[in-house]
Amino acid sequence: MDTISDKLALVDINDLPYDPRTARVKEWLESHAAWGFCGHFKDALDDPDYDLKSILCNEHTRKTALRVPVDIEDAIWKGKVVVDDDKFGRLVKRGDPLQFLLNAWITPAASEVERQERSKQQDIQMLHQAFTSPFVGPGLTWLDEALNTYQAMYDQSKHYGKAISILQSSGMGKSRAVAELAKTRYLLSICFRDIKNPEYDPKKGWPPHDTHACRFFCEDAKSFKPKFKGEELAAAFLGALMEVVGEQLSGDTPISPEDFSKIWKVEVPDGSKVSNRELCFEKVRNAAKSKLKLKAVELEANRKGEGELKTGWFGSIYTTLMKEPAKKLVELCGNAPFIIAIDECVELNLGRISMEPQEDISLPALHRMVKACDEYNIWYIFMDTNSGVQYVLPRTGELASSFRLVKAFSPLPAFPYFAFDVMADKAQKPSTPHGALDLAYLKHFGRPVSVFILHTWRVLTKEIVQYWSTLPDHDVLRAAKLKLIGAENFDVRATSQVFAILSSRLLLELGITEAANRLAMTAVGRHMRILTGVTSAEEIMNTCAPSEPMLAIAAASLLVASPSSYKAAINLLVKELILKGLVLERGRQGELLARILLMMARDFAISPDPKTTEARSFVSANHVTTVTLDKFLTALLGDKLGVTHKPKSLHHGLLRWATKHKLNFTHFLQVNDNIHELTPEFLEYCWNRGIALTCAYNQPLFDILIVTYHGDLTQIERSKFGLLVIQVKLRIEAADRGL
């Protein structure tokens, strides 16, 4: 008699209807099948006539809605099912056990508002759990060492304030690294995420915004009569913050950085209680309002003539609102700097960005007050993802926003350095070439990532900060697609989406034009491209698309799903990006065009008929689809392999030989040094990661290498790894279009 595990093994995840509940039910059953079920559940599922596969895969069998009590529903999905409980048993008796689980996924009990609130709290709990999990990788060490470097290099006569701008793509761990740094340095982070929304929305990410800080700048600032300038608002808030922190550090017993961080610890906002962090920020908010009301006359007097570029105006605001609390704070910290981190800093641009002081808070206004506080060892970290460098780094030059100071200063270099592949060591090396095709293995490569997860039927509801590797196998590809294009559906007319998809596979390099820089900003902010450096004087962003298998697979899946969209994407790449100079065509022999052709051949070879107009599937049963070398060559060169003057037996023999060789590359990787030796272990690594190699510019003999495997993919023999060696040459005349 088949066991429950045997029955589950017959259910292919790709056969399930488009309803994430079924995948979750299957996953739950698999996780519990090992220790067995009991009671009514076991009796039903062990019945030889019970067709488990049909129940899961046929959505028409789910007709009877079952009201499931909340405590039972929560117990099910937390993995603590009380299968012997009388109430649970009675419910199962009333209907099919699997149908019971499927209906338990969305409880029709209570009100819709109550259900959404419970779902929101579950999201928040998962976000907090992921954010507070053990920190992995060298990113924290790099940031800590960088702070020492920044302190050593800072020159008050040259630099625009003790401010470090952390700029990087989504999911690289900026907020997480700063939170971890607070355990060893005196550091307080303030989050302005979704600043105008009074309620925290977990779909916006983690950590949540600090409500009282946001309300001070959004609500209190508008209630003052007369209104204060943005610089005065910034100085009052920072001064009040320093006062509150100074009081906390001035006790009889010294407070370590880690103990101080616990006072301001981010807690789960559940509405039932007020966290200590929230009480602290409420105190800061009230103190800032009191400062402004108390010093209103003095500030107004100092403000007269500020439109005439009086350089002392910033100094007078600083002296009035910040100087004394700043002095006390640095005395309490001793030789250690105190660090204030501003998370989602661009949200502070609430009004019109202008060279003149405005009545709304703005990031330039905050930067000016940071510079005014130069005399003390107080440092600032500005963090953001979704905006261009010009919004985060203070502008310099003759008409820069720093012109009200003594002269135009230069910002400190931006910090974009975060670890990659930090979970790769935790991946169990596949024992066979087929194992390397499994998404469960490939998802260990890449970044820590903030991802969308589909958990309710056809509705996008959650954004959870996790590693690719922590995602369920059935969610990871969908999540990668969403993060890559920044939308649910691929719009082939959107230049940024097409660039994101193709650059994750083709090593696209951007030019240095203004249009290319705008595209780079969008790619970093919305489409997972990595920032490698910033030339602040010209505000040029240096970016790249790293080797990240999940994004490459997501890109390939989006492309092959529609042949017409695939064609349109390639046309846009050539006509709008390459020919217009936004994307550089490096190399003298057309290497980029060669990569495009090789990628297209690999994708079109998936189908038994390379010329079909039907959709192809790049992933099947959670595994990357391989192609045989003969199909690849036919898709690339045609049935006759581009050779017309040789006997048919030649290319027929070559194709017969090629049927035994498979290739699986998903994207290209640039090799910077000449290749002198290729070991079987390195070829296996390339196969496992799904990379084809683009050789260094001066590499002799060959330009591109694609790894192949000869034989049964379920058996490994390193001697069977081989290479398709490609030399790229430009033609004097264009090839026949029929090729």
Describe this structure in words.
The longest helix has 20 residues. With about 750 residues, the chain is α/β, with parallel strands linked by helices. Helix 29 links the parallel strand 15 and strand 16. It is built from 29 helices and 18 strands. Helix 12 crosses helix 14, helix 12 packs across helix 18 and helix 27 crosses helix 28. The strands form six sheets. Strands 13, 14, 15, 16, 17 and 18 form a six-stranded mixed sheet that branches. About 10% of the residues have low confidence. Helices cover about 45% and strands about 10% of the residues.
Topology at a glance:
Layout: H1 4-9, H2 20-33, H3 39-45, H4 52-57, H5 70-77, H6 86-93, H7 97-104, H8 112-131, H9 139-153, E1 163-167, H10 174-181, E2 187-191, H11 211-223, H12 230-249, H13 257-263, H14 276-294, H15 296-303, H16 312-321, H17 323-333, E3 338-343, H18 363-372, E4 378-384, H19 389-392, H20 439-442, E5 448-456, E6 459-467, H21 473-485, H22 495-506, E7 509-510, H23 514-526, E8 530-535, E9 540-544, H24 549-560, H25 563-578, E10 583-584, H26 591-604, E11 619-620, E12 623-624, E13 627-628, H27 629-637, H28 648-658, E14 661-663, E15 667-670, H29 680-689, E16 691-694, E17 704-710, E18 721-726
Parallel strand pairs: 1-4, 2-3, 3-4, 15-16
Antiparallel strand pairs: 5-6, 7-10, 8-9, 11-12, 13-14, 14-17, 16-17, 17-18
Helix pairs in contact: 9-10, 11-14, 12-14, 12-16, 12-17, 12-18, 15-16, 21-24, 22-24, 22-25, 26-27, 27-28
